[in-house]
Every structure is written in structure tokens, then in C-alpha cells.
């Protein structure tokens, strides 16, 4: 039987790279999507291949609809029909109060975190739904605890984008449940990745660690484990659900 196929967006580093590595270990042929860092995506693919797994690095900015369409077409050709999509690509910008934000910044955040995820979901459903010749599938959205906490004084725009992603998860899960497509989301808390540098504070996780009930930040692997549970058959009756991976935060 051919490998199942998974697309992980923004998989050249951080949580996405951890998901790609774990998925390959679980037998998925993985599309390691990246926006700019071809070298980093190639390194993830090499690590997967070194363990005997199957992966391909594929460029595509999820904020650009035409590039998303081309990405999914490339997966059709090179890996086969997609079984699982992990909407992991996400961005945030410099920490600031809302009163200092301009619309261009907010639009940039929404273009990747909301519109990008939505268009990727659309392309996935067009392949997974039986009426399109598909065989069902699983979608996992990488949201954030920010959706619930609101990120005051840091990035309310980012938090709002993750709130929208949560609502997308609820709506789409109901819309495609009868098609055999499950849609769930993880809400990571403070995870050690390079994302915090984009906010202007690379050491942010250590700063907030003391306020986390478990008294530490999380690792990309700890998030990847939960993503892979949602994708697995063990979660066969679970859709429209959320798991906080936040050390109790
Ligand atoms: P990261 O910055 O290391 O990874 C994000 C990846 O997405 C990068 O590789 C980036 O190049 C890619 N990306 C960004 N915009 C893209 C686009 N338009 N098209 C394609 N790829 C794009 O950060 P991370 O922490 O690994 O983030 C992964 C996800 O986890 C994000 O959605 C983020 O919001 C979420 N998250 C992270 C944390 C945390 O504390 N690190 C907490 C909650 C949620």
C-alpha cells in the first residue's frame, strides 16, 4: 500500500519541522513546505531520508493563493493524493500596543495566519472529499493560546488571527464531517522556536516561564506529538476539537 501523504506548511524549522520528522517516522510521505529557506527545508528532508523516510521540499507562500494552488498540484504529481494537512505556517510581528499598529501590518498577519490556512483547507477538501474522488482525511490547524489570552501589549493582531483560525476549525469540522474529513486544532503555549525573534524578543519563552504552571516552556516535539495524535486513527471520533499544549497556561 502506498504511503499516506501529509502536507506541513512552514515546515523548514520549529514546530513544522518537528511535525514533518514525526510524520515521516509514522509512515507518511511528507511535503515539507517552505516560503524562503530552501536550505533549511532541504535539511529537514535530509534528516527524514537519513531515517529511511520519504519527503520532498516544496516552495510556496501560503499567503499567495496561486502559489498554494501550485503547491497542492505539485503534491498531487510528486507524492499523490493528500491525506493530512497541517496548517502550521504562521507569523507575528514586533511586540507593540494596538494603538501603534497600522493596517498593513495587521493585513500581513491575517494573510498568512487566516487566509493562507483557509485556502490550504480549501485545496485539501477538494482532494479529500469523496465527491471529489477522495478518501477522507485529517486537517490540524496550529492555533495558539494567544487566541484565548489575547496577547495584550504584545500582538493582539496575531492573537485575533488565531481566534479566527479556531472559528475556522469549528465551522469546517462540521461542514466536512460527513465527508470523512476531521478538522482539529492545537493551541501551543510558549514554545522554544525562532518565532519569538520576530516579536523582537528571542528570549521571550524564558521570560514568561515563571508564569506557566509547569514552570517551563515547551518544545516543538511536544506540540508535534499532539498534532500526530489528532491525525492518527486513535482520534477517529474526534473533530472540531482543541488541545492546549501549554504547560497549564
Ligand atoms: P517559526 O517561525 O519557527 O515557524 C513558522 C514557519 O512558518 C517558518 O518556517 C516560516 O518561514 C513559515 N511561514 C511563515 N509565513 C509563511 C507563509 N506565508 N508561507 C509559508 N510558510 C510560512 O515558529 P513556530 O513557533 O515553529 O511556529 C509554528 C506555528 O506555531 C505558527 O503557526 C505559530 O503561530 C504557532 N505557535 C507558536 C508558538 C510558540 O511559542 N513558538 C506558540 C503558539 C503557536
Provide tags for this entry.
NAD(P)-bd_dom_sf, 249 residues, Short chain dehydrogenase, binds nicotinamide-adenine-dinucleotide, single chain, KR_dom, 16% strand, Rossmann fold
What does this structure look like?
This protein has 249 residues and is of the alpha/beta class. Helices cover 44% and strands 16% of the residues. It has one domain (4-245): NAD(P)-binding Rossmann-like Domain (Rossmann fold). It has 9 helices and 7 strands, in the order βαβαβαβαβααβαααβ. It has a 7-stranded parallel sheet, sandwiched between helices. The model has no long low-confidence stretch (mean pLDDT 98). It binds nicotinamide-adenine-dinucleotide (NAD). The site of nicotinamide-adenine-dinucleotide has 26 residues, from helix 1 and helix 4.
Amino acid at each position: 500500500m502506498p504511503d499516506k501523504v501529509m502536507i506541513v506548511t512552514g515546515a523548514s524549522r520549529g514546530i513544522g519541522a518537528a511535525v514533518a520528522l514525526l510524520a515521516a517516522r509514522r509512515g507518511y510521505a511528507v511535503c515539507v513546505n517552505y516560503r524562503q529557506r530552501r536550505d533549511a527545508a532541504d535539511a529537514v528532508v535530509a534528516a527524514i531520508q537519513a531515517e529511511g523516510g520519504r519527503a520532498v521540499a516544496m516552495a510556496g507562500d501560503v499567503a499567495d493563493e496561486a502559489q498554494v494552488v501550485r503547491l497542492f498540484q505539485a503534491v498531487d504529481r510528486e507524492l499523490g493524493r493528500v491525506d493530512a494537512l497541517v496548517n502550521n505556517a504562521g507569523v507575528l510581528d514586533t511586540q507593540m500596543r494596538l494603538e501603534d499598529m497600522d493596517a498593513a501590518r495587521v493585513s500581513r498577519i491575517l494573510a498568512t495566519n487566516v487566509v493562507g490556512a483557509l485556502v490550504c483547507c480549501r485545496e485539501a477538501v477538494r482532494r479529500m472529499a469523496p465527491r471529489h474522488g477522495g478518501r477522507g482525511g485529517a486537517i490540524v490547524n496550529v492555533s495558539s493560546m494567544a487566541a484565548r489570552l489575547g496577547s495584550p501589549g504584545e500582538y493582539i493582531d496575531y492573537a485575533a488571527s488565531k481566534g479566527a483560525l479556531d472559528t475556522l476549525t469549528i465551522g469546517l469540522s462540521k461542514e466536512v464531517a460527513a465527508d470523512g474529513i476531521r478538522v482539529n486544532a492545537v493551541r501551543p503555549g510558549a514554545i522554544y522556536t525562532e518565532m519569538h525573534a520576530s516579536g523582537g524578543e528571542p528570549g521571550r519563552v524564558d521570560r514568561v516561564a515563571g508564569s506557566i504552571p509547569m514552570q517551563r516552556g515547551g518544545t516543538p516535539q511536544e506540540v508535534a506529538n499532539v498534532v500526530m495524535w489528532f491525525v492518527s486513527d486513535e482520534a477517529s471520533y474526534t473533530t472540531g476539537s482543541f488541545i492546549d499544549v501549554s504547560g497549564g497556561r
